[in-house]
Write a structure and sequence with these properties.
Elements (H helix, E strand, L loop, with lengths): L1 E6 L3 E8 L2 E4 L9 E2 L1 E4 L4 H10 L6 H16 L10 E2 H10 L5 E4 L12 H26 L5 E6 L8 H19 L3 E6 H10 L6 E8 L4 E8 L13 E7 L3 H13 L18 H4 L7 H7 L2 H13 L3 H13 L2 H14 L5 E7 L4 E7 H7 L1 H18 L5 E5 L6 H10 L5 E3 L5 H13 L2
Parallel strand pairs: 1-8, 8-9, 10-15, 15-16
Antiparallel strand pairs: 1-2, 2-3, 2-4, 5-6, 5-7, 10-11, 11-12, 13-14
């Protein structure tokens, strides 16, 4: 049996073909979409959990070294790991929000897979993270279908990381293949996420069209210009119909991060000055919320940085705000701040303003954010997204008949309006913002695994 598997930056989902149509499977309770999150007692618990409770062995000598170090660390910390200690999805997020200091929490590991400069031990760790998440999802899918799932088509972005090019793409794909294989999949195939979304849209077409698929996910924006319709449906070779692709690691997470940076971080000292009058360095306020940047997170939460922050507090004109930043460090609140920004972004889609409540140990900050402030804050990532749309059309050398938008951030009226301004008089149609890619992957699997 096969599944279409959207291993997404924000959410994961899977689908099977049932009576000729894609059917999504519940993965967390009755929910078809499980947040791409994991929570554990320690960072080291993930590798031990795979080996001890799932009988999943490392795929390399580096992985074996990581496992030995993980087991030794947990023994030294007197941590007796039980299967229920590893949580996924909304359960993981809820535990983190209750007590962020005493758990290891990671969101969107997919964002890191194509990062440049990763050491072998880091690659092995990300492989373990992905494997644990995939194994959980595979188990939930098999529980739902009451069948063994052996094959999968996994969606992939056009580019995992724009800076690393094909080397980054290959690194990310290799991590996904090894993780999926260790999780129990026998045959693993890939398909571009916007192409998969296009295949789902194609099923509804009654005549051939040139379609620009714009998939704005949590981690990437991907565009594909494709010839689609009844003449092409069901063919195993679609290479001649794929006219152009563009993609970059800029997505919904970046909108949240930029909104947090512009509107929340001033309350933690950003835009402030030292006693000497020199403005405080911006990197101290960017790093804690750059949750999709391995090095930024490593730098901010390093032991050395705590001494820097304490010195910054002594030198600042507003030390009370830097004290809040130190609390972000001590309580590991970076993800929580970005979460507050995400909530604001969603609310401001149809509201003139929104009050973000940020709970700290000694106070609750109430930050009022206006709709125009949100628009101004996300201008940089929005511009990159629009540039990708233009690139795909220019590469293809032909204007599309229709624009098919999908992905969680495709719901944003701001982004839809910006795309409409760039490509006027071309209709924009919507599908299932979260499920189109998954459904298309299942359709492609139905063709490839027959």
């Amino acid at each position: 049996m096969f599944i279409g598997f959207d291993y997404g930056t924000s959410n994961c989902s899977v689908a099977i073909m049932k009576e000729g149509k894609p059917t999504l499977l519940p993965l967390e309770g009755d929910d078809f979409y499980i947040p791409s999150t994991l929570c554990a007692p320690t960072r080291e618990s993930v590798s031990e959990h795979l080996f001890r409770h799932l009988n999943i062995k490392p795929s390399s000598e580096i992985g074996e070294q990581l496992l030995r170090k993980s087991i030794a660390f947990n023994r030294d910390e007197d941590i007796e790991l039980v299967p229920e200690d590893i949580l996924f999805g909304q359960s993981a997020l809820s535990l983190y929000l209750r007590d962020p200091r005493d758990v290891y929490y990671v969101k969107s590991p997919k964002s890191f897979l194509g990062a440049s400069g990763l050491h072998d031990i880091q690659i092995s760790f990300f492989e373990d993270l992905v494997c644990a998440m995939m194994a959980n999802i595979k188990h939930q899918a098999e529980k739902s279908t009451q069948e063994t799932i052996t094959d999968t088509v996994i969606g992939k972005p056009i580019n995992f990381n724009g800076l690393g090019g094909e080397a980054s793409n290959k690194q990310a794909e290799n991590i996904l293949i090894r993780a999926a294989t260790r999780a129990g999949f026998k045959n693993v195939m890939f398909e571009f996420e916007p192409v998969a979304a296009g295949l789902e849209y194609e099923a509804s077409l009654e005549k051939d069209q040139t379609v620009l698929v714009v998939d704005i996910g949590g981690g990437t924006t991907d565009c594909s210009l494709i010839q689609m319709g009844p003449s092409y449906r069901g063919k195993t070779d679609r290479s001649n119909t794929l006219l152009a692709h563009s993609g970059q690691r800029v997505g919904g997470n970046d909108l949240d991060i930029y909104l947090a940076f512009k509107q929340l971080m001033p309350h933690f000292g950003m835009t402030g000055s030292m006693l000497s009058g020199i403005q405080l360095p911006l990197m101290h306020f960017w790093d804690p919320i750059a949750i999709n940047n391995v090095e930024a997170q490593k730098n901010f939460y390093s032991r050395q940085n705590l001494a820097v922050l304490n010195q910054l507090k002594r030198d600042a004109q507003e030390p009370e705000k830097i004290a809040r930043l130190i609390e972000v460090y001590n309580e590991t609140l970076g993800y929580s701040l970005v979460r507050r920004a995400e909530e604001a972004k969603i609310a401001l889609s149809d509201s003139p303003d929104y009050i973000a409540n940020i709970k700290l140990l000694s106070e609750t900050l109430e930050v009022n954010i206006e709709h125009q402030q949100m628009i101004d804050a996300i201008e940089s990532p929005k511009s990159k997204m629009i540039e990708l749309v233009n690139n795909a059309v220019q590469q293809g050398g032909i204007k599309p008949d229709v624009i098919f938008m999908t992905g969680g951030s495709a719901r944003s009226p701001v982004l839809c309006q910006a795309i409409q301004q760039q490509l006027p008089n071309i209709p924009i149609v919507k599908g299932n913002d979260f499920g189109s890619v998954t459904a298309g992957l299942a359709r492609w699997g139905d063709i490839c695994f027959k």
